[in-house]
């Protein structure tokens, strides 16, 4: 599981995917989120603005990413 370190209280799903390197551009993140290909805490998430906080886990292409807060 890869850790994604954030400095603030939360990060939006789309931004977290870019920060983690799971996608290269925001438009790519938007497409895969809206297509239902991303899980947040084991549930399909369709909102790219979903706020992720310390301890949340998102999954894309069978890779898990854990949000680690400041």
TrEMBL record:
GO molecular function terms listed in the Swiss-Prot or TrEMBL record: RNA binding
UniProt cross-references to Gene3D superfamilies, sorted A to Z: RNA-binding S4 domain
One Pfam family recorded for the sequence: S4_2
Protein name in UniProt: RNA-binding S4 domain-containing protein
Record organism: Lachnoanaerobaculum umeaense
């Amino acid at each position: 599981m890869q850790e994604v370190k954030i400095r603030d209280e939360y990060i939006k799903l789309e931004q977290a995917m870019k920060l983690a390197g799971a996608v290269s551009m925001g438009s790519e993140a938007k497409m895969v989120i809206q297509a239902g290909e991303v899980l947040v805490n084991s549930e399909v998430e369709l909102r790219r603005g979903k706020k992720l906080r310390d301890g949340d886990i998102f999954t894309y292409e069978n890779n898990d990413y854990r949000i680690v807060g400041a």
